[in-house]
Amino acid sequence: AILNNVAELNKLRLTFDFIVLEGGTAGNVVANRLSENPTHKVLVLEAGGSNEDVMEIIVPGYCTRTSPNTAQSWNYTTTPQTALNDRVLIYPRGFVLGGTSSINYMNYARGSKEDFDRIAKVLGDEGWSWDSLMPYRFKNERFNLQTQDNHNITGEFDPKYHGFNGINTVSLPGFPTPIDNRTLKAMTESTEFPFVLDMNSGFPLGVGYGQTTIKNGSRSSSATSYLAPQFVSRPNLHVLLNAHVTRVLETGPGVFRGVEFVGNLNGPTLHLTAEKGIILAAGSVETPNMLLHSGIGNSSTLKALGIKPLHNLPSVGQNLTDHTLAFLSFMVNSDNTWETAERNTTMALEEFAQWNATRTGPLVDFPGSLFGWVRADLEGKFPDPAAGPNTPHYQLIIGNGFFGPPPATGNFMSILPALVAPTARGSITINSSDPLAPPIINPNQLGTASDVFVMRQALKGILRFASLPAWSDYIISPVGINFNSTDDELDAYIREASVAAYHTVGSASMSPRGASWGVLDPDLRVKGLTGLRIVDLSVLPHIPSADTQATAYAIAEKAADLIKESWGYL
Ligand SMILES: Cc1cc2nc3c(=O)[nH]c(=O)nc-3n(C[C@H](O)[C@H](O)[C@H](O)COP(=O)(O)OP(=O)(O)OC[C@H]3O[C@@H](n4cnc5c(N)ncnc54)[C@H](O)[C@@H]3O)c2cc1C
């Protein structure tokens, strides 16, 4: 059942085997899988509210409206980013059931085989390799063979890389955009941007059809899928909304099976204990924040802040890694772009009415059909930052309009580069002993010379792509730079036009058993402690070269098996 307040929970007088701290992308997967065993009583505590009836969440075409500065987002900001002219960036995360899977842009991308084989090698644990994670990707995925416009999808994906019986629906685009055919034609005009049949095969290089977590024209999040009515009605699964967790608590020497939370920010502090274990799945920003406030982190820093150190793990909050996105638009010779609907209320209402009546039309998709995964020419200047030669350095996000509020006049298309093999590392730290105070978020965007160089090469690559004959009667000019900008001009543009991609990972990373660094053993247990596992993207020692939700789901499916195994059933 889903409960809205602590009074409802108290009335039930329940005890729990597992308490899953937070109903986000990964947390809901674990809650679902652990409650498959009817003898296991599972509670999820989630700070945010319900995902139901929020149109910005449900309608795919509205996905860019879910954040920032909405009731469904932790409206964080970063520290001034040195490489980005000291700009403070917005840094949203989902504050709602489903977590960031309820507010993200739904792109489903797994990264490369080499990404995960590198992680397995670093950890000395084959269980994290690409091949070992494949069954968990399949357990998560329910690939949808029908699109909203019922077009023939042969040649748009490769079925052998997909799961068809999982829980979370993944679909191909259901409404072609007017620039799809030109993009496909451009691919035939240059060997630099070949067509890739399926970017989720482990070998993503090329440009191909995007896959998204959309079910029949509406968002599929961990809340709508893993907590669908047939699951959340299990008598042994309870989800408490509006429960802000402040700390995990020591219940015996080195044993953490307690949790402290508040049911509303001015209300009393409440405590619960799990018989078997606590699963911390608050995401890469809040998980390290919560560990630090619980006394798990660098003991001397915690002591200086007035927090009683309970377990010295200096890596907590370190190694935070994120991708970087640069906005890049082109003025085009067409009026069939997003701007036209954005400037015309009647047309926007018609699009919504179409979606509402038949789940067809432009709002059934993330606003874009094709994505690219490309390697940059490093010109021998830097060691390869990618996991291997089949792994991209940057992503192309192609859209039929201007991302963000459009200028008053003109029509546009966007080809955004996202740096997906960053070398910079950031951190989550705290400067207060108040667990309700926001953490200090420093993703250190483009924080190395190598990252700035690769982003510059990405911009040059996109300018080459936009110069191909397929675009000659369509693209008028880039916005903010031009086709022959100098390196200095491109760098100046990058520092102003780049933002975080919100693919945050790594801040409570696994490391090999017995290592002097890291926060978790490869079985996701906090090093040196009993009763506490972490299951979210903070656990990754390296960032995959793709959007991150597919990996959050795979980690969580694997974690559920690890937990079940340790309690003697699978
Ligand atoms: C705007 C945006 C767009 C994105 N687009 C894409 C995309 O298109 N494709 C993609 O693959 N990835 C995308 N991502 C990233 C991706 O969605 C996330 O990496 C992933 O969902 C994170 O999963 P998680 O389980 O680690 O954390 P989350 O899903 O964030 O779960 C954490 C949960 O913990 C809760 N929580 C945190 N602290 C507390 C507390 N103290 N007490 C109680 N509850 C708490 C949160 O409310 C949340 O529900 C996007 C991210 C953003 C922000």
TrEMBL record:
Residues 283-297 form the Glucose-methanol-choline oxidoreductase N-terminal domain. It comes from the Eukaryota. One of its GO terms (molecular function) is oxidoreductase activity, acting on CH-OH group of donors. Its cofactor is FAD. FAD binds at residues 96, 100, 245. It holds the Pfam family GMC_oxred_C. Gene3D superfamilies: FAD/NAD(P)-binding domain (3.50.50.60), Glucose Oxidase, domain 3 (3.30.560.10). The keyword Signal applies. Belongs to the GMC oxidoreductase family. This is Aryl-alcohol oxidase. The lineage of its organism: Eukaryota, Fungi, Dikarya, Basidiomycota, Agaricomycotina.
